[in-house]
Amino acid sequence: MIIVVTPNPAVDVTYRVAEQRIGATQRVLDVARRPGGKGLNVGRVLAATGTGTHAVLPLGGPSGRWVADALDALRLPHSDVAVTGETRTTVTVVDDREHPTMFGEPGPRVTPDEWDAVTASVERLLDNAEPSALVVSGSLPSDTDPAVVGAWVAAARARGVPGLVDCSGDALLAAADAGATICKPNRGELLEATGAADERAGALQLLDRGAAVVVVSRGADGIAAHTVDDVVEVPAIAGVTGNPTGAGDAATAGLITALAARPAGVSGAGAPVVVDETALRTAAAFGAAAVLRPVAGEVDPDDVRRFLTTTETDTDTDTAPHDRTGSPA
Amino acid sequence: MIIVVTPNPAVDVTYRVAEQRIGATQRVLDVARRPGGKGLNVGRVLAATGTGTHAVLPLGGPSGRWVADALDALRLPHSDVAVTGETRTTVTVVDDREHPTMFGEPGPRVTPDEWDAVTASVERLLDNAEPSALVVSGSLPSDTDPAVVGAWVAAARARGVPGLVDCSGDALLAAADAGATICKPNRGELLEATGAADERAGALQLLDRGAAVVVVSRGADGIAAHTVDDVVEVPAIAGVTGNPTGAGDAATAGLITALAARPAGVSGAGAPVVVDETALRTAAAFGAAAVLRPVAGEVDPDDVRRFLTTTETDTDTDTAPHDRTGSPA
C-alpha cells in the first residue's frame, strides 16, 4: 500500500462551451467535476493499475465534502483532515477551437494545527498500515510553511519507508533537506527551485541537500534519474499525442509501481533505492498511457501494458502511431 | 412577510484575475461566492430594507448545502426542498480591462415529485405564515414544466394572496394564465415570451390571459405598469451609473415594498392591486440603489431613501451625479 499525501486537493471542474469569448455570457453545455490535485492523480492511476493506496488530505467546506464523497464513489481509501478553509476549485473551460482556459483558486489557508493533524494522520498510517512508500505530490496552499513536507519525509524515513516527493519551490528543497528517497520535479520546477543553470547542477544541489535520487521528468524529452555518481536516462515513448496534463503524475505512479514490484519491495530492508532503466521505462509507459486519456488521473491498464512491452523490445523507434488526440481537458 | 420562490438558485462565484486571456492558466486573485438566483436577490434586498421574507427553493448536492448555509449566515429564513440534482453554479470572471465573462451551468433536473414538494412548501407557508405576497422570480431549470409556476400562483390566488411573477418564456405565460396579480418581465422577456411586436401588445396578451397588471422594466428607459385600460410610466432615475445586474430584482423588491406599505396591505381584503406612479417610483428608486452596489442582491437603504426623496420632489432632472462605477460582477 502506498500512502499518497495531497497537500492542496481541488474540485477540478471542466466546462464545455460552444466558443470561448471574453466578455460574453456563455451557456455551459457540459459540466464535469473530478477530485483533483497531483497526489490524487497519482493515487487514481495506482488504483487503476492494481496498487493499493491510501490518500491523506486536508479538506474543508462544501467542496472538501464533495472531494471526500467523490473518493468514496471511486473506492479510494482516504483519511481526511478537516480544515476551516474551503478546499479550492479549479475551472477549466474548453471548446473545440481554442486551447483550454484554466482558472485556479489559491486554496485555503491551512493552520499549523491543521498541518499537525495531517502529519499525525501520516504517522498513524506509517505505523499501522505497513505502507511500502509515501508519496507527497502537488502544490502547497498559500502561506504554508514548506517544513511540513520535510516532516512527512522525516516521519517516513524514521520508519524505513521510502518517500517520493513531487513538489516545487521551497517544498522541494525541504523534501531534499529531510532526506527524501526520491525528489521528482519536472525540469522547469528543478531549475526554478534550485536556481541552477542546468538540470545536472540542479539535481546535484538536491542530492547535496540530502535526496538519495533525483528523478527529472522532461516531458517529450523523456525522464532521467540522477545520483551523485550517475545519470540514467530513457526517452519518452514516441508517437503518442493527446493530453499531457497529469502525465507526470502517472509517471510518478509508474515509478512507484516499478520499485514496489521488486522482490524486496521499494527499498528492501533499508537498502538504497536504485532507480534503474527499467523503473524509468515503467514511468515513461505510465506517462504515455496518461497522454491517451482526455483527463488527468486516468490510464487504461491495457495502454500501460502495451507501452511496457514496447519499451522492453524496441525503445528507440516509434510505437505504432497514435493519432488519437485527446481533448486537452 | 413575503414568500419568495427561487426555482433555480445558484452559487454565484466571481473570480478576479489580472487579465482575462483565452487558452491561458490564470491565477484567481480573489474569489467571492454568493447565493444567487433572481428570487434570492429580491429576498436579500427586501431583508436589507426591513421587509420580512421567507425563501422557498429546491436545493441539491454540496452546492445546494452551500446555498443553505449562506442563507443561514445572512439570517434569511428559508424552506429548502431537497432535490437529487446538484444546484447550479455560475462563474463570472472579472478583471479591470474587459467586460466580465459569465459561465452559467444549466441547473439540475428537478423531478415532478420534487416540484410537488416545492408546491407543498409554498402552500404550507401560505396557510400558516400570513404572507402579504408571493414572489416567484428567475429561470426554471431545464426540462421543467412551466405549469409549476401556475400552480404556485393559483395557490396564492385561492388564498387571496397577491402573486408577483418575474419569469420568462412559457413560465411567464403560465403565470398569466393562472391569474398572476403582477407579471413583471423586462421588455425583452415580454416580447420574446409573447411574440408581440411592441410592449403594449405583449402586455395586453398577458392581461388577456389573466394577469391583473403587467409591470415592464425598461432598464435606463424606466418602468411601466400596464392594465387593460391604462399605462402608467415613470422614468429611470438619471445620472446613476454602475452595475445593472440585479437592478430589476431590486425594482421587484421596491414594487412589493410600496404595495405592502399601503394601509390595507398589498391588496386590501381582496381589493384589486393598483400599481400607481408612487409604486413605480419606489421600484425605480430600489433599482437605482442596486446599480450603485458592485454585486446583485444588495442595496444600501440610505441610497433607497435618497432616491425616494429625489423622485418625490424632482423627477425629471438628474440627481447629483454618481461617478462611482461599480464592478460589474
Between the first and last Cα atoms of chain A, what is the distance in angstroms? 30 Å
Largest interface: A-B, 31 and 31 residues
Number of continuous helical runs of chain A: 10
Counted beta strands of chain A: 14
Which secondary-structure class do the elements of chain A indicate? alpha/beta
The helix-strand sequence of chain A is EEEEHEHEEEHEHEHEHHEEEHHH
Mean pLDDT across all residues of chain A, rounded? 90
Spatial strand sequence of the major β-sheet of chain A? 6-5-1-9-10-11-12-13-14
Radius of gyration of chain A over alpha carbons?
A: 19 Å
Q: What does the largest sheet of chain A look like?
A: 9 strands, mixed
Query: Helix fraction of chain A?
Result: 25-40%
Which descriptor suits the 3D outline of chain A? globular
Low-pLDDT segments, ≥5 res of chain A: 313-329
Strand content of chain A: 15-25%
Query: Oligomerization state of this entry?
Result: homodimer
